[in-house]
Amino acid sequence: MTTADTSLAPRIALVGATGAVGGTLLDILEDHGSPYRALHLIASVRSAGREIRAGGLDRPVRDLAGFDFRRADVAFFFAGAEVSRRWAPLAAAAGTLVVDGSSAFRLTEDVPLVVPGINGALLDRRPAVGLVALPGAGATALARVLAPIVRRWTVRKVVVSTYQPASEAGHAGVEELQEGTRIRLQDPEAPLPAEVFSPPLAFDVQSGTWAGAEPGRAAGGTWAGPPEDGFTEQERGLLEETRRVLGLPGLDLTATCVRVPVAHGQCAAVWVDCALAVDRGALIAALRSAPGVTVHDGAGHATLTPAMPTPATLDDPDRVHVSRIRLSPAGPNGPTGFWLWLVADNLRSGAALGAFQVLGELAARGTL
Ligand SMILES: NC(=O)c1ccc[n+]([C@@H]2O[C@H](COP(=O)([O-])OP(=O)(O)OC[C@H]3O[C@@H](n4cnc5c(N)ncnc54)[C@H](OP(=O)(O)O)[C@@H]3O)[C@@H](O)[C@H]2O)c1
């Protein structure tokens, strides 16, 4: 139960309450019994008047354009970069602390980019601009896994290949994948819907920017690299956001992002090369001690067993799951490079949980 009458509990506004991440954040607030004095559910005019059950009440969804942010202490924005660019500064100017899940401010200098458990200390003071940004789901998972490694073994290079689900494009992405899959199974020649993913994603694997992508949706901010270097906005975002969260702007990191026909759950194959020799036991211990990371390394860890997480079998969606830790053959001073495989819930540990944890950090520090 959630509506506590303590005067210290915050008044919350959730922009994007009808969306994939917004709905997940409502689940998390419910799961944790988080107290709030008010909960305002906000979306576009398309959803205004709908009701969503939250905290034991059927609550109306309000149109963003008509909402007075002076009624909220904190506002979560999960409604796309364009909405955040336009409305988040207005909410902040009204005195509301904005926690923005879009790509709009992830690389903005005076907006802290926070993953609680790694750099939550950035919230020791209320940000002057009234905005806190959250990284994308890929950078959140990667930063969680690299944080216990980068300084201890002096990382020289990280190479990442991601396998990303349709739900990173929200409800519409999942619906289009399901519809395309259904149509293709019935008729191999029938045209498939391609409004979100173009070409269609059903039964396919795609690397590169798909034509249907919402501008500014995949990642944003300022990319330090050349404009025509062939990296997608998503790949650029993954690299720059991970460096920023780790506080290592010079980290040699490169990535290929791939969209796969999976509804929920992101995966990544990560190659890490270090300056110092890596001991496998010490590496596993370091990863196990990292907040939000679970290591799967039982007997026969090269074999996929029902106990090993996949997007379809992920049983703890609040953690980043690491498996398949493989050290490369030893050099003269011992092995310095290793592979690992990570699986994480993009909606929960990759987005909504971070927002919830930021709220907890702010409350604990009295900086809300
Ligand atoms: N999906 C992920 O894995 C993920 C991970 C990390 C971050 N994010 C970020 O989270 C945000 C939301 O993603 P999502 O996957 O939840 O998308 P979604 O399922 O498409 O939901 C979008 C939400 O934004 C609202 N919205 C759209 N246009 C609006 C407008 N003009 N004014 C007010 N509300 C508007 C929608 O309301 P209506 O129902 O009224 O259209 C809906 O509630 C994006 O910025 C995304 O980059 C997503």
Report on this model:
This protein is α/β, with parallel strands linked by helices and 368 residues long. The protein has 2 domains: 11-135 and 351-365, Rossmann fold; 138-346, Dihydrodipicolinate Reductase, domain 2. The protein has helices at residues 20-31, 81-93, 137-150, 170-186, 233-246, 280-288, 348-365, and strands spanning 11-15, 38-43, 51-54, 57-63, 74-77, 97-100, 131-133, 155-164, 206-207, 253-259, 266-274, 293-295, 320-327, 337-344. The strands form 2 sheets. A 7-stranded mixed β-sheet has the order 3-4-2-1-5-6-7, with helices on both faces. A 7-stranded mixed β-sheet has the order 9-10-8-11-14-13-12. The radius of gyration is 21 Å and the shape is globular. The structure holds NADP nicotinamide-adenine-dinucleotide phosphate. NADP nicotinamide-adenine-dinucleotide phosphate is lined by residues 16-22, 43-44, 46-47, 64, 78-81, 83, 101-103, 136-137, 167-168, 170-172, 217, 346-347, 350-351.
